[in-house]
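Re: that backbone. Tokens:
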């Protein structure tokens, strides 16, 4: 049912109403979610609610590229972060609720690769309806594989994180297996949510989410390299991104409950991994 609701809402968000009606819808949405439009075009510019959701930055955010430092891939709230524990393959969804790394990554992540995450770092990023919805490469990186895992589309806000166990593992998601320039392995998991019509990737338009698919599928890439800060794609509404880094390779520079912005330094990579 959540998938059907999301498809209906996605249809509504794509409708272009007459200019005055659309301006009213946009202004109501901006006021309701207290969106700061300082980095974006005027509210009336957007011809649909979907266009407002997926708004681009007017001016590129500048950052100083620092060796061994990962930047935030998005604007978000850090809802949890820490060490993957309980046998090495469980992380916190929210205090009191955990999720299985094995389940989260799905059937097409090899067991030996999942083992790299034992006692590694996890960071959960929650993108609210008020946030900038695009996501970017946190470092110079190579994308090795994408896995699409169909599922439900439950809300991923704090209320639901406290309400439903293993929520991230039940929702539809796309898993990217990645490698830094120093060959440290990490995963980015893009979790769908209620009213997220699509999870889009600029480097692979064939990844189709919320599309009545029921089987997991994967694609391996050859020489798919992204530069730090390069846009990877966007959510058509807010959602969650999970970062998972192999043991001893990464250390967090931010804290649980912190609000972060794309380009902010959030993780340092350790050169001398054990």
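Recovered sequence:
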């Amino acid at each position: 049912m959540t998938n059907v609701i999301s498809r209906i809402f996605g249809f509504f968000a794509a409708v272009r109403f007459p200019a005055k009606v659309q301006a009213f819808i946009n202004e109501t949405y901006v006021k309701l979610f207290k969106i700061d439009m300082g980095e974006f075009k005027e509210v009336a510019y957007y011809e649909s609610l979907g266009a407002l959701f997926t708004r681009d930055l007017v001016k590129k955010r500048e950052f100083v590229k620092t060796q061994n430092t990962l930047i935030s891939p998005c604007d978000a709230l850090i809802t949890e972060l820490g060490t993957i524990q309980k046998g090495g393959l469980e992380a916190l969804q929210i205090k009191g609720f955990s999720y299985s790394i094995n389940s989260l990554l799905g059937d097409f992540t090899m067991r030996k690769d999942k083992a790299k995450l034992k006692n590694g770092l996890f960071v959960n990023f929650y993108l609210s309806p008020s946030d900038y919805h695009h996501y970017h490469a946190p470092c110079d990186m190579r994308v090795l594989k994408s896995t699409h895992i169909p599922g439900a589309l439950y809300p991923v806000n704090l209320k639901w994180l406290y309400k439903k166990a293993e929520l991230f593992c039940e929702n539809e998601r796309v898993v990217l297996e990645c490698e830094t320039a120093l060959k440290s392995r990490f995963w980015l998991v893009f979790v769908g949510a209620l009213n997220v019509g699509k999870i889009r990737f600029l480097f692979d338009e064939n990844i189709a989410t919320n599309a009545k698919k029921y089987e997991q599928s994967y694609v391996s890439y050859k020489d798919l390299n992204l530069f730090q800060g390069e846009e990877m794609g966007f959510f058509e509404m807010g959602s969650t991104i999970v970062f998972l880094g192999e043991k001893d390779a990464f250390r967090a520079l931010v804290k649980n409950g912190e609000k972060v912005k794309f380009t902010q330094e959030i993780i340092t990579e350790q050169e001398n991994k054990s």
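Helices lie at 2-14, 19-32, 49-53, 101-105, 111-115, 158-161, 167-170. The first helix runs from residue 2 to 14.
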